[in-house]
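Hey,

The postdoc asked me to send both predictions to you directly instead of through the lab channel. I've kept everything plain text so nothing gets mangled by the mail client. Protein one:
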Amino acid sequence: MFYHFIRPVARFIVWLLNGHLHVNHKERIPDGNYILAAPHRTWWEPILFALAASPKEFMFMAKIELFKNPILRFILKHAHAFPVDRDHPGPSALKTPIKGLRNGNYSLIIFPSGTRHSSEMKGGTIAIAKLSNKPIVPVVYQGPLTFTGLLKRQPLEVCFGEPFMVDRKIKLTHENEAMLDNKLKKAWDKIDHEQDPNFHYLPR
């Protein structure tokens, strides 16, 4: 119920602050549940991705520190967020999203690099895709990287790529995970180039 309330509120705020959210290749999104996997470039990306892929509802991981504030904890929990300890992720970091994807309740937004401005892929995304048997949909954000740029109404571009499955028979060895991580990175590069050949992400 809260998710249905907060989504139009978030859409209005984005429109009020910027007014230029452009969604590209939404037709590539498959039916059913899926995993939106993106490189982490700004803190507002989860909001834009959830709006761009509406009416699908999403769950997402949030660092456990955010849940210490009671007001923020209420908002996060009712927006389908679940806490993850980045330094010591427990079994719930996999079990919670897998259960949500399997039960047909929600899709998942995930940032395989874990934190903003990092290109190092953390474990989890490939395992979740394999164990849930749900497709990975690569997605990228192109646009302002600062709140000032957002307020200057620079265009916000959300671009979806072609979905792909992780074979349930594949063993998640270090080599196989590295191969699939590289496949995801190449998908992001392809979408970036497709949307804007001159785009280059420069972390601050």
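Protein two:
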Amino acid sequence: MALRGPKVWLWRWRRNPLKRRADRVEAWVVLGVWTLTVVVGVLAGLSVSRSVEEGLARERVEWRPVEARLAEKAPGRAAENDDASRAEHVWAQARWAAADGSPHSGQVRVLAGSAAGTPITVWTDREGLQVTRPVTESQARVRAVLIGGAAGFLTAVLPLAAGRATRRHLERRRIDQWDAEWARFGPMWGRTTG
């Protein structure tokens, strides 16, 4: 276990007669990498978050509920009691008309045993194609923050990895220089003057 002295803040920037050019370069690389990591991560996270929130807001504006009718009787048996929360839901074919009057059809979830012609609400886009219900503003905000945070974090990893590779390269060069210096001065230590 190596003994270390007290942690000194900004030790890379302190004056030291033993500090080499490689040490100064490494100090600037570390500063640049951390600055770039923070800036890139924050900018990427904010832009992705804004993009997600705008896309979800556009969906809330463009997607509309439409009344559809079951084209066939839903499979299964209808619930005998009035407890709709425990009733079985199944997929059944439904038909609806888009805003321009064009006919559309698709699979919808309905209560088992629902009769043909039963009205159902279906969400559609501008073309009348079936979509899911759009998220609320608060759900959109949470989703945007989560996706933006993940994108910011993953984007920030790139400069960190590049900085790590650069520091590894600098370390290899520094060790090679130490080996060369040791090869030159090491043999002198064994000699005695006399």
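Summary for protein two, as requested: DSSP finds two helices and five strands in the chain.

Thanks,
C.
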